[in-house]
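Lecture notes, unit on protein representations.

Consider one protein chain, 133 amino acids long.
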Amino acid sequence: MSKIYYVVGGEYADTSFSIIAPGHSEERFGPFGEHEAHICWRALTGKTVDNAMVRYFIRSNEEASSDTWYVIGGEYADTGFQTIAPGKKKDILGPYNRQDALNKWRELTGKTVDSALTRYDLCTKEELARRDL
């Protein structure tokens, strides 16, 4: 059985992208197969590219119901954020519940705000298992 995906998001209150902006509600599109979800996501992000407060995510049913989160990242070799810088290792912090993961992410990004090559992301345990770490 293949996974079912949804595109979720909308306009957020701030760039932590954790709380929908007042007067707005979370948008949800789907269900889709994986390819169709990416097509929908591209279309939505293309239409809203000029609004820094709008963000959309692709989530599977399992991810949408997960409350186990990780913060991953570190110093990267370049702004493509694919390869960790030589001599560095990727940080994998967690597991956390969603709010604690957001708090840890805010702490780390606040400490590294002046480093254009340092980046941290939130991911569920399912996303973490799929990533090439």
